[in-house]
Design goal:
The protein has helices spanning 12-18, 44-52, 66-79, 90-101, 116-125, 141-147, 170-179, 192-195, 229-243, 249-259, 262-281, 300-306, 324-337, 367-373, 389-400; strands at 83-87, 107-111, 132-136, 152-158, 183-187, 205-209, 223-227, 286-290, 314-319, 342-343, 353-355, 379-383. The protein is an alpha/beta fold. The chain has 2 domains: 12-261, Type I PLP-dependent aspartate aminotransferase-like (Major domain) (Aspartate Aminotransferase, domain 2, 3-Layer(aba) Sandwich); 262-400, Aspartate Aminotransferase, domain 1 (Alpha-Beta Complex), CATH 3.90.1150.10. The strands form 2 sheets. The chain has a 7-stranded mixed beta sheet with strand order 1-7-6-5-4-2-3, with helices on both faces. Helix 8 (192-195) links the parallel strand 5 (183-187) and strand 6 (205-209). Helix 3 packs parallel to helix 10 (249-259), helix 4 (90-101) packs parallel to helix 5 (116-125) and helix 13 crosses helix 15 (389-400). The radius of gyration is 22 Å and the shape is globular. The protein binds pyridoxal-5'-phosphate. Pyridoxal-5'-phosphate binds at residues 89-91, 115, 118, 158, 162, 187, 189-190, 209, 211-212, 221, 223.
């Protein structure tokens, strides 16, 4: 192997480009893509040791792959955890976490503003297997504390949230979890390790949808859990082996290469989002803008402290309207008038995307759940990309100006 061990103390931007599994004997500079489902074993004895877990070495594609390992090592180094386990999607990472850490009778506390599919998975699907859950207001630390029961095993937070960008206090939640003998998991999809490293604030598990900013150009699905080596080996690997939510090598390679530009993208896209948010706040047809980088955001100071002074690349705004029906019509008008921005519910792309959460990403929620989460019919979410900021503004003006 032509690999030299990396020195200690490298900056996250350097780790994003350099941390990975060993180079092959060919000394390739760009990470290799190993498209193989199986591995030839050197000897029968070695195969036995590898299957028993007594020796390092790949055995089967569902259990591991060198390209997948490179992605896992790089992401773990960026999050500051000992290890990571990748999955086929962000949702399957949450499924793996719950299957690995919970059993029937255990209790989970989540925010009621979590990603819609997360609420469905934990609140409904896992309830079928006897997992109990409570959903509390995202920013109310006392409500999180009050929801903890003797059987609480996990607190699961997402910050900032989708689509209202509500920010919760990671250190405070870690304290509540640990005093209760529970673990804190954080969905770090919106901030990414480029802005926020929850482990430094006491979180035990970092969950990712690699589909978003880690890929960065909207190409593949991926997910991951970052945690201690012991948790990854003892809790998550057995679920991967039997559950099979394995990340495909090609997708791992795409996301691995995406990580190399994560820092520069997050800083540039955050700057664009801040400029757009400030500008939207001044538009007469806009009722309110939700963006952690704005002084008007209720958790602005916490967000700036927790996210390295950056607001992230996602903002939402509500158009002015007299009632919910009119609000929905006006939001649809703005979205349908766009000619550059993609009408799409995804996020984390270089392409700016806008969507109507109440009828799409949050459409599966009941009206009561949506109201509890504060997602009105006039709300538009914008995942800000890297096009020229003036072209993004002009595209929103096409619809906004005719609302006056
Ligand atoms: C997209 C997303 C997920 C789910 O990830 P997938 O890769 O789509 O399965 C989870 N949490 C948040 C915050 C997301 O935006």
């Amino acid at each position: 192997m032509t690999h030299k061990t990396l020195p200690e103390g490298l900056h996250p931007d350097t780790l994003a480009i350099r941390a990975a599994a060993d180079r092959s004997q060919y000394g390739e500079n760009s990470e290799a893509l190993y498209l193989t489902s199986g591995y030839v074993q050197p000897t029968a004895e070695a195969a036995a040791r590898r299957f028993a877990g007594d020796e390092e070495g790949f055995t089967y594609g569902r259990y591991g792959n060198p390209t997948v390992s490179s992605f896992e090592q790089r992401l773990a180094s960026m999050e500051g955890t000992q290890a990571a386990m990748s999955t086929a999607s962000g949702m399957s990472a949450i499924l793996m976490m719950c299957m690995g850490l919970l059993q029937s009778g255990d209790h989970v506390v989540c925010s009621q503003s979590m990603f819609g599919s997360t609420i469905k998975l934990i609140g409904s699907d896992l309830a079928k297997f006897g997992v109990q859950s409570s959903f509390v207001p995202q920013t109310d630390v006392d409500a999180w504390r009050a929801a903890v029961r003797p059987n609480t095993k996990l607190l699961f937070a997402e910050t900032p949230t989708n689509p209202l960008t509500e920010v919760c206090d990671i250190a405070a939640l870690a304290d509540i979890a640990h005093k209760a003998g529970a673990l804190l998991a954080v969905d770090n999809c919106f901030a990414t390790p480029a802005l926020q490293r929850p482990v430094e604030l006491g979180a035990d598990i970092i969950m990712h949808s690699g589909t978003k900013f880690l890929d960065g150009q909207g190409r593949v699905m991926a997910g991951a859990l970052c945690a201690s080596q012991q948790m990854v080996t003892e809790k998550f690997l057995p679920v991967l082996k039997s559950g099979g939510m394995t990340l495909a090598p090609f997708n791992a390679w795409v996301v691995l290469k995406g990580l190399e530009t994560l820092g520069i993208r997050m800083r540039a896209q955050s700057a664009q989002a801040l400029a757009l948010g400030e500008w939207l706040e001044g538009h007469p047809a806009v009722d309110r803008v939700f963006y952690p980088g704005l002084v008007s955001h209720p958790q602005h100071r916490l967000a700036m402290a927790q996210q390295g002074g950056l607001g992230g690349a996602v903002l939402s705004f509500a158009v002015k309207a007299s009632n919910p029906d009119a609000a929905r019509q006006r939001a649809f008008h703005v979205l349908d008038a766009m000619r550059v921005i993609s009408l799409a519910t995804n996020l984390g792309d270089t392409k700016t995307m806008a969507a109507h959460p109440a009828s799409t990403s949050h459409g599966r929620m009941t009206e009561a759940q949506r109201q509890a989460a504060g997602i009105g019919q006039g709300l538009i979410r914008v995942a800000v990309g890297l096009e020229h900021i003036e072209d993004i503004k002009t595209d929103l003006l096409r619809g906004l100006d005719s609302l006056k």
